[in-house]
Amino acid sequence: MKLGCWVISLNEQDPQTQELLSSLKSHGLDPKLSPAVDGRKMMPSLQGDEFLDESEAKIRHKRSLTSSELGCYLSHYRTIKLAYDHGYDRACIMEDDVLLEPDFGTCLKKLLDLPDEYEMIRLMALKIRKRKIVAPLFEDRQHLHEIVRPERGWCGTQGYVLSRPGMKKILDFASNIYEPIDKLYDHFFEFDLRLFGIEPHLIYERICSSTISRTPKKLPKMRLHEKIKFQIYKAYRSHIRHSYLKKHAQEFYPCGLPETRTGNTIRMK
Questions:
Q1: pLDDT tens, 147-172?
Q2: In angstroms, rounded to a whole number, what is the distance separating the alpha carbons of residues 92 and 66?
Q3: Which end of the chain has the lower number of beta carbons within 10 A, N or C?
Q4: Burial of 86 (0-12, 13-18, 19+ CB in 10 A)
């Protein structure tokens, strides 16, 4: 299996970027720097089949993407494309503002042994939402880690692992850009991305900010027809999410629905 590992950063010499690269090496990986697309001052230029769909963005999120959001989106999208075009079977992608838990390497090896159907595994979440426990990551009871399947978006793109089929699904769907990259992943049910998470998380976010900034933008006032379109889409998205989860319940839980977890995940010490 060909594994690639990338850290997305605007500044290779930044101390926290170098610290993360060193930490990944200490866990047996060969990480590479993926230069982030800089959207701090102006809208980044698009390449190839990348298309910014502002009309769709306003219907779905009431506003256009900011230049920083587009830069972040393109940073992840192009890193995935690089991994896929170079024939990698797995891609581990991280932003530069994370720290690794001590058992990161041990757990990552187990994640890499999972079938390709585990197309995306998020290594942490910014929001802890409803999810179902799929299976323990280890057979012995000395390890607490479990694979879970989120029923709603976890938010954040701090770190994740993709299988090759997962890379292809993202690349086939995501060249049309209308929402931040973490929202795209949160809407996995729209393009049948088999998305999972791991608990306890394997990485956690630093208190200091990432070099990949995400400038917030004040929502503009919406006209009546725009409000109607937004509410229709919101109801439609909820419908297809519930339909998707119900349709694939047997596929992921052949022995019946497992425990649903709603509280916080625990942090490894």
A1: 999 888 888 999 999 999 999 999 99
A2: 26
A3: C
A4: exposed
